[in-house]
Input
Amino acid sequence: MGFFEKIKKGLTKTRQAMENTLLSIFSDFAVADEEFFDELEESLILADLGVETAGKAVEALREQVDFKHLTTTDQIRNELRQILVGMLEVGDAALNIGTRPSVVLVIGVNGVGKTTTIGKLANQLKGEGKNVLLCAGDTFRAAAADQLEIWAGRSGVDIVRQHEGADPASVVFDGISAAKARGTDVILVDTAGRLHNKANLMNELAKISRVIDRELPESDKEVLLVLDGTTGQNGLLQAKQFKEIAGVTGIVLTKLDGTAKGGIVIAIADALQVPVKYIGVGEGIDDLMPFEARSFVEALI
Output
């Protein structure tokens, strides 16, 4: 299955939900009047773009329809696609991992799929010929390191871990030391997912970041926030909180195959002005897809 087909299949629920409403709107289309734009905005809100992002998209469309004198459904639909692509293209969607080693810090609340994302990303990077090391920085959740070790085995990569309750920054230090000794290309760091106490989480992530900056001052570093796509607008709230705490450089949206509200991807990119770097569209080890804005929008509409 090709890249576009996999995304299209993964977004089936969202696309069908949007098509049902868009088909009705465009089939009844006679003129781009206020009723048309109101119905279109409602359709985008139902796909979980959110009120603010949907309103912004429709206002931009209204301006382009007037400016370009667009009159047909195909013209207006294509213009809508261009606007949504523009809202998604807010930065480099590729991982910035040009140094040896580079560090990817993976953050997010418990249950969003952090460990699975790390395992899939490790498998992908290894397939690209990179030497990958996993670092089990979530020492608070029972069996977190065990789960990560299973993924290390599946992906055929090394892992550094300590006992449950160990200092996460200490685990990261050990991981960096091991990476230097082994000539590792990329260190993928799992972290605890506690958001209920932001002060503790902020202190913990800050401590990890200080260790990375001290030990690898010249290395590329990504901070990937993993969000569960099925949580919709709650995911957007989480993203805003984590951006304040952790200096997020990229978003990973998981479980998009299980929701009819995949438009949350657009809402998050637009609201945070942080690029989406990966999307999860299935349970398989190869179902974590590098994000491409145009392919995503074309699969959606």
About this structure: The radius of gyration is 21 Å. The longest strand covers residues 221-228. Strands lie at 102-107, 132-136, 158-160, 186-190, 221-228, 250-254, 276-280, 288-290. The chain has a mean pLDDT of 88.
